[in-house]
Amino acid sequence: MKPFAYARPADVAEAVRDVAAEPTAVFLGGGTNLVDHLKLGIVRPDLVVDVRTLTSRSIDDLQDGGLRVGAAVTNSELAADRRVRERYPVLAQALLAGATGQLRNLATTGGNPLQRTRCVYFQDASTACNKREPGTGCSAVGGYTRYHAVLGVPAALPDPTAPETCIATHPSDMAVALAALDAQVQVLGPAGARTVPFVDLHRLPGEDPSRDTVLEHGELITAIDLPPLPAGARSAYRKVRDRASYAFALVSVAAVASGNGDVRLALGGVAHKPWRATRAEGVLRGGPLTEDTVRAAMAAELAAAQPQPGVDSGNGFKIPLVTRTVVATLRDLEA
Ligand code: SF4
Questions:
Q1: Contact assessment for residue 168 and residue 140, using Cβ atoms and an 8 Å cutoff
Q2: Residue 237: CB partners within 8 Å, gap ≥ 6?
Q3: Neighbouring residues of 215: CB distance < 8 A, sequence distance ≥ 6
């Protein structure tokens, strides 16, 4: 592991200044992902700035009926909060579907959405990977693609040598629920504070697969706000994986049925970012939630899907699987 300096600033503003001043500096939250990457040589910072005790560790009621979750609130604390379990079951279920109890005791609200892909090539510093080392190519194309993206992929078959190619998926369960809940991200950076809609926090690879989010260097998540849901709204999270625990999603679904005919759907395991299924939402708006209408909505959503071939038979199975998972999730909400 490359040696690095370690800093424990006095407050959040100092932490932001410290990271902004050093181009390779990183924030340390729960460390459940970063520490692995330090050991593997995937990130090689000159400075690690510890913010674990600087941001809020409380969950506060907002005047509009929502909740403000401090960035240092752990995943375990958030999943156990009575208000979250009663008002946002989709979030509690997503949190409990992620990782293990030990990891959830450390992982934080600010850090979980910023965890990096678990693409096996990204985690192997001996392979070509545009996300880890821009311009080197993408080893996943034509390789092991079982956990890779089918949505948000360029229409042309991805070129493994092109610097913009990346078919990784975002691994967080929590982030899929936050996308469906229309959460708002409170950020502090060198230029001041700003609010980022959660659905806009993560990005598709575009020209630069090394960037997972729209955050600038030095910007720190300080809290995440959960807007109130309409009275009578119901929500649920369903995750499909290769084993019953401690596994990332092959596909996952976060659904919020508002009770007035509107349904919000976010999909995990299918794209470079938590995927808000706006086309499907549009088809379903105001109509009955029958199996036929849900299947039609998902057909619209998945019309542009690009299954990837690969050494393991590829990931085309995700297209019918995510449709079945949405059908089952909405059927449970209607029951
Ligand atoms: Fe790297 Fe993305 Fe390709 Fe995986 S899919 S090897 S993360 S560029």
A1: yes
A2: 89, 90, 91, 93, 94, 97, 173, 176, 177, 252, 253, 254, 255, 329
A3: 114, 187, 189, 196, 201, 221
- Least confident interval from 112-121, 122-131, 211-220, 256-265: 256-265
| Amino acid type, 4 | F
Range with the poorest average pLDDT among 65-69, 162-166, 224-228: 162-166
* Residue 108 phi, psi dihedral angles, 5° rounding: -115, 165
How close is the Cα of 132 to the center of ligand 1, in Å? 8
What does the pLDDT read at residue 154?
76
Q: What is the pLDDT averaged over residues 248-275?
A: 96
- Asked if the 234-334 domain carries CATH number 3.30.420.40, the reply is no
Tell me the pLDDT band of 112, cut-offs 50, 70 and 90: very high
pLDDT at 156 over 70: no
Quick check: 55 and 223 in contact, CB under 8 A? yes
Distance 271 CA to ligand 1 centre (A): 12
Query: What mean pLDDT, rounded, does the chain reach?
Result: 96
Q: Are 288 and 168 in contact (CB under 8 A)?
A: no
Structure-block tokens of residue 152: 């948000």
Q: Measure 130 CA to ligand 1 centroid, in angstroms.
A: 6
Q: What residue's CA is closest to ligand 1, atom 2?
A: 166
The residue extents of the domains of the chain are: 5-50, 234-334
Surface-to-core class of residue 246, CB atoms within 10 Å of its CB (0-12 exposed, 13-18 middle, 19+ buried): exposed
The predicted structure's pLDDT at residue 177: 99
Beta bridge partners of 60: 68
Tell the CATH topology of 5-50: 3.30.43
- 51 Cβ below 6 A of ligand 1: no
Q: How confident is the model at residue 140 (pLDDT cuts 50, 70, 90)?
A: very high
Burial class (CB in 10 A: 0-12, 13-18, 19+), 94: buried
